[in-house]
Automatic annotation (TrEMBL), chains A, B, C:
Protein name per UniProt: GM14687
Record-stated family: Belongs to the ammonium transporter (TC 2.A.49) family. Rh subfamily.
Single GO biological process annotation from the record: ammonium homeostasis
Source organism per UniProt: Drosophila sechellia
Membrane topology type: Multi-pass membrane protein
Residue spans crossing the bilayer: 12-29, 86-107, 145-164, 176-196, 208-227, 247-266, 301-318, 339-359, 396-419
Gene name linked to the record: Dsec\GM14687
Subcellular location: Membrane
Length: 449, 449, 449
């Protein structure tokens, strides 16, 4: 099973998947009306232009997915080809699959309408398996990774539908549905694929080199810069502006906190690049679910301070504990960057929801907490609107994160079991975190390099 | 001729060129009306704002030209200064020249109107010699490169005018006028400058190092991410949205295909960074000419699959054959990334044009195939509109690519002859692919690096 | 004082600063009306959307601040963690502080209104201490750097208010208030912290490695590409389009000039990466103050040519002279990239202002030179409008740069004295330009790297 034949059959399966996508696109996908020519005698309403007004934000998110995630994971000293390459491979596969999967949940007349919105959604969906990949980085084959992502995105789409459309939770920046889901799914898979207890030492290759750490900073910085676009892309009007402002401030506060706490808890009070590369971004995750709410600048800054602190402490104390005791390596520390900050965001959303009033949110209540509309008797109930009160909405927020964790962990364990016990090839310990098993690598370099 | 004096005179010539540009700007270029102050008593129509609505896409294209091309070419182990530096140098010279050259073809009252549109066009024009540079990378002096780009852009502007305004072909993303032209022009120059038959071996410097390969991925990824902006910037309304969607899907499909085919045809089934860096982008080229047509998602995906396959096979089999038999090195493989995918795009455009009907394209027919307007007798003929039928338009598409190839190859051979046989200094074999002949390079680095 | 305890107390102070920010946000900052929900019965004027129309330019500036400055400073061979990390740390602290400081100068009803505009302003303010950091790079502790930035931004906000609102100078791209201020403030601090005369040799670590130079090109290129956004973000309508066009052309001309002059003045006529990384950008600074004026394309190109020449000559002759004679190291050469080009911009602004007429600027005169409105008797005087004539406005431009230099240099000397003579720890000579005193650095790397 470890022969080249296994590789070949794995890649052939992926090609077949691509061809199945082609057929599904042909059968089910049509351009949305805004992307079709106007009838000759129609009056141009100028709406087409407005329809693509989110294009700049879409492009920011593209950079986050492909450059941000890809380069953030180049920090390993001998795994840079895989980090950037597999990110590209996985994202290219997943965006197609996400257009289809999310499309199936919103079909009209048996067809999926294709517009800019769909590919924005697809890019967001691509973040999910990329987050999980961080927990597994260097310990799976590309075939395992890609197959995992196909399972995961299907499950993600279902869970997101459940959370947003059935439970009607607010989750503007996707911290619950994207970050928590991706992180805990990945951790569950990592738990299933964990090494035997006698192979648990951390290898030299599981660390950075001077150069690889700087490559990783490219990823960090682009993620930092464009995070407000990720959090605000699905919000409109004033809510969108608040999402930008809150995310920006939370990131800034988390960054300052990360540097301080990193220096305070580290050996000889030296700063740790792992913290700088990751925990600075925790502010973006922790504010995600609530980024369009009326937090105030101080609310955003407070969330950032908490997130930066928790994330650094997680890297410093919790991750080594998990490696030692659970044999769970979490290569990129997604639990500290995505997992715990997403839990903070979910809790914050319950707190803010419990205080939400129609007097405060006015006309935006319907967008943000649609299930609350109708409570004051002056609004007609809308689709799915249950006339919840604020406490009840807070409860649903917590229910939403609980169900997400359940589905993510359950799905991750199942997927991990499939990857481990079925016909997939598993990497051996000495193949971990090393490009050369799956890539042509330049022959031993001389000192000029 | 190989003395510093040759260098000095070359650079002095380039400075004179810059000063000639200054004079030409002074004589011929004026701000367009949208960039001039409104008269005090004029009513503000708010049009100025709309005029710069393409600014975000312009910036995306800027990143493609300067970061994308520059870093894509850093893959050579000792040619990174030149890759990023000469890209900057060439693009800075060419954008000025393109504003002038393209301006001369569209003068009003003896003046060129300067607006955002001109510099978008100039950025697109800069792509042309940068593509050619890929075929020559490491085997010319900067002076040769810059002089080539001045010739080439003048010829490009003329050919583009011919193709779009005389033959009225569709070429929304510029695969014919930009990619095919740049690739075959560059290959023709490379053919003229090819090494003597006893110097044809591929040197160690013609390959990558581990670090340089990761730098190159910066270029690849930004080109990938922003390609939809390149293809859609000149389209409007619904056509613009289709250009975005089709380019995105074609890139995604080409990427998945590239990884699979690369693994299947490579030694030991290992992935090859050359393929990943380049062939993943072939989907963007191959969909270029037709990106605003009604391809459907499946059409875009199919084009991507074909492009990825052809491109990888080209790198694997055709390029080594050309190196061995024609002594044509094509350092970056532009034939596989730009040349062949552009031919695919031209053929696709003939096929789709042959099926175009006014019933399908409605009010957009005039924008996309202006020469076809009038065929059904219900539209008045517009300027240049010949009332072509669909088959005839298809023929023109093929005629357009044929003329483009002819002009590109003829111009390239001529330019190559000038670079080789006139007073230019030519690099010797042992000066190839090495920064230090034209750059101050840090003294031999020690192992700390 | 050189014990870890000094580090600890420094970081603790920074945490306290962050918490003070939190309290100030809570006390003084509120969302602006555009970022608040519309009343249920209000008619949606669609204005919210327009309010964030500058969002794409904001994101370009974010990339300049975090990626551009951060990576431009990675050129030192062993200071890449600090370059990218401290940029992130400083910018994250400063943006919060700038929102507050600039807000205090424009309070309404005792509150600061928070909107996208504020964080655009904050990003621009972050450029100021980052420029100063370039003059000090590698020769301060992070604590010194951060404390300096807090002082500096307060002073910057005051000086900017003075220049723009009291003296009513034009400074669209901020060359006077941002670039000149940041450069001369930094140089003054560097002068105070200069080494003793027996420690003035330039160490090996004060130079680049092959890899670090390519990292720096990431910074250069992103700064180049997005500079038009920096210069135009505060301009509107036609002035905004001119700012884009002029900046683009000036950068292009400066780039061509930089390459030529670098080759002509360098040893063996080889290009120097320091020039390419920095002087290519001088065109963006030199055109900054005047970028929205009616320069014409030739005016912009001429400014670029002058800036490129002056900047390269500065690096080649002036900087080594300053190092040798003043013991002023100016690690990144900010005097050549920001200082002198900003002076050119100020002089250009006086020249163009002296020729400005209401016949030429029409309705834009009020935006660009508000103090000149009223001179022709047909306009009512506006707030602060003094009915200046053109010569007088030119004088104010020169007065503006003079006062800016005075405040910057005075403030820098004072700040430098505080950093040197109070309780701050100062780096010793052998700790300069080396990450490992403040960062965990991977253990000695082997030759594989």
């Amino acid at each position: 099973m470890h022969s080249p034949a296994a590789k070949v059959s794995g890649y052939v399966v992926l090609m077949i998947v691509q061809i199945i996508f082609l057929v599904l696109f042909w059968l089910f996908v049509r351009y949305e009306k805004t992307a079709l020519p106007l009838a000759i005698d129609a009056e141009d309403a100028g709406s087409a232009n407005e329809h693509v007004s989110k294009y700049p934000q879409f492009q920011d998110i593209q950079v986050m997915i492909f450059i941000g995630f890809g380069f953030l994971m180049t920090f390993l000293r001998k795994y840079g080809y895989s980090a950037t390459g597999f990110t590209l491979f996985m994202a290219a596969l997943v965006v197609q699959w996400a257009v289809l999967m999310k499309g199936f949940l919103h079909m009209e007349g048996g067809k999926i309408s294709l517009s800019l919105e769909n590919i924005i959604d697809a890019d967001i969906a691509a973040a999910v398996p990329l987050i999980s990949m961080g927990a597994l980085l260097g310990r799976t084959t590309p075939i395992q990774l890609l197959c995992m992502s196909v399972f995961e995105v299907a499950l993600f789409a279902a869970n997101e539908y459940l959370a947003l459309h059935v439970f009607s939770i607010c989750d503007c920046g996707g911290s619950i549905t994207v970050h928590a889901f991706g992180a805990y799914f990945g951790l569950a898979v990592a738990l299933m694929l964990r090494p035997a207890s006698d192979q648990n030492e951390t290898g030299k290759l599981e660390g950075a080199s001077y150069t690889s750490d700087i490559f990783a900073m490219i990823g960090t910085t682009f993620l930092w810069v464009y995070w407000p676009s990720f959090n605000s892309v699905l919000a409109d009007g004033a809510g969108g502006e608040r999402a930008i402002l809150n995310t920006f401030l939370s990131l800034a506060a988390a960054t300052v906190t990360t540097f301080v706490v990193s220096a305070l808890v580290s050996h000889e009070n030296k700063l740790d690049m792992v913290h700088v590369q990751n925990s600075t971004l925790a502010g973006g995750v922790a504010v995600g679910t609530v980024c369009n709410l009326l937090l105030g600048a101080h609310g955003a800054v407070l969330i950032g301070i908490i997130a930066g602190t928790v994330s650094v402490l997680g890297y410093r104390y919790l991750t080594p504990w998990m490696t030692a005791n659970l044999r769970l390596h979490d290569t990129c520390g997604v639990h500290n960057l995505h997992g715990m900050p997403a839990l903070i965001s979910a809790i914050a959303s319950a707190i803010y929801a419990s205080m939400a009033t129609v007097g405060e949110y006015q006309s935006e209540l319907q967008d943000i907490f649609p299930a609350m509309v109708g409570t004051n008797g002056t609004e007609t109930k809308i689709m799915g609107g249950l006339g919840r009160n604020a406490t009840s909405q807070a409860g649903y927020q917590l229910f939403g994160i609980a169900v997400t964790l359940l589905i993510a962990i359950g799905g991750g364990i199942l997927t991990g079991a499939v990857l481990k016990y079925t016909n997939f090839r598993n990497l051996k310990k000495d193949e971990h975190h090393l490009d050369e098993h799956y890539w042509e690598v330049p022959a031993a370099e001389n000192k000029e390099e």
